Structure formats: C-alpha cells, structure tokens
Amino acid sequence: MLKLTKVSKVYEGKVAYRALTDISLEIEKGEFVAIMGPSGSGKTTLLNIISTNDTPTTGEVELDGENPHKLKKNTLAKFRRNELGFIFQDFNLLHTLTVEENMVLPLTLDGTGVSEMKEKAQQIAKNLGISSIMNKRTYEISGGQAQRVAIARAMIHEPRLLLADEPTGNLDSKASKDVMKMLVSINEKEKTSLLMVTHDPQAASYSDRVVFIRDGKLHSEIHRGESRQAFFQKIIDMLSLMGGEGNDFSSIRV
C-alpha cells in the first residue's frame, strides 16, 4: 500500500544536515503503524515526506504503486485531498467555523453538494460521538472533542492513508485513550491504513507494529502479539534501550 525505498533527506545550508538515511519501509493496506524515536531522530521529516509536504533528496515513495512526488502541482493537491487524511497535535481547526463546517472543509474544496456534505458529516459525527456539538464553535469544546472533530475532518473524504502527528500530545489520559480507541475502530472498520508519529508509549501500544528511528535511520521494529499490555512493556524496554533524554518521551500512562 505504502512503500518507501531507500529514502534519504539532506537539508542544504552553510552546513548540510542529513535528516534521514536510506529508509525502506512498507505498510500494508489496513495496517496501523506507529513511529517512535528520540527528538530530532527524523520522525516528523519522514511524515512530511510521506504526506508530500517535503520531498526526499534520494529514494522513492509509492502509494498503491504511484509516486506522488512526480505529480504536477494541481494533480498533487488533488491527490493529497483525496487519498490522504491528516491529524495534528494542535488539531488545526478554524475557530471562525462551527464544528460541522470544520468537518466538511475537505468536501467543500472538492465542490461536493450541500446535502451530501451534511449527510456525510452527520454519519461520521454519530460514529465519533460528537453529534451534540455540531453547531458549536471550536473554542467552546474540550480538547478531546476537538481531536474527535479533527479525526472526523480527516476521515470524511474516506482517505486510503491516515497520517497522525502526535494525535494525543495535547490530551489528558482519558481523552488520549478515547482518541486511540477511536483510531483503532476506524482502522478496523474502514480498513484505512494508519501511520502515527508519537512520543507516547501508551498511544503506540494500540498499533499493530512500532518502527523505531534513531539519528535518521531505522533502528528496529516490534510487532504486537495478543496482549496490548505485553506490547506496551516491549515498547518501554525498547525506548530505554535506545536511551535519549528524559523529556524525549511523554510521561508513561497505563
């Protein structure tokens, strides 16, 4: 589904900085993969390259056999809008719009009819438990609700790949659990492939597999077995093995 082949990224400047080195990674359709590593390890650079916000210096990125980095500007914009969904740590919602208006934004850009937009918004709001706040402004709702709205907006056009950057970073432990359960549910029901960058071992333990990056290179990966608790412990062990500063990973929440 998603295939990276020997992807490297070098930022030119007075001193060239190599952010990624020869990253090769495959994600199957419907797989949920978390990416972890110390600050500055290249996690966000990798996500930016996959999301086409940044281009690789060398190497190939393919989504269902197509390299989005070779598309022309307008075709690329459409590709991003139709094939990818984005969830951010700070929600990226527009405060001047209602919850419903934020949710249907991707459909508005595609020129979808009003009745179809309303129908899709109501269905996804029902699934995510936010039907009661559809007419509220985003500053009137909690962080957990705001992240649900952001998930709804990312999912409303049924993308093939959902990219999440620290989706629980600004949430308390209960809201974090709710959001992660929601992402798992979307992943299982819709078979949407999900790639998540996180510092939070608890959030990572909901994934099928965790890929660890260090100094811009693939360090290791571990797969989830039957027990999420055992997987969580494996993640903790791997993080301590990798070292890093104490503030590199969020406080552990079980």
Automatic annotation (TrEMBL):
Record-annotated ABC transporter domain positions: 2-240
PROSITE patterns: ABC_TRANSPORTER_1, ABC_TRANSPORTER_2
Organism: Oceanobacillus halophilus
GO annotation, cellular component aspect: membrane protein complex
Protein name: ABC transporter ATP-binding protein
Pfam families named in the record: ABC_tran (PF00005)
Family note: Belongs to the ABC transporter superfamily.
SMART domains noted in UniProt: AAA
UniProt key word ATP-binding: yes
Alphabetically ordered keywords of this record: ATP-binding, Nucleotide-binding, Transport
One annotated GO molecular function: ATP binding
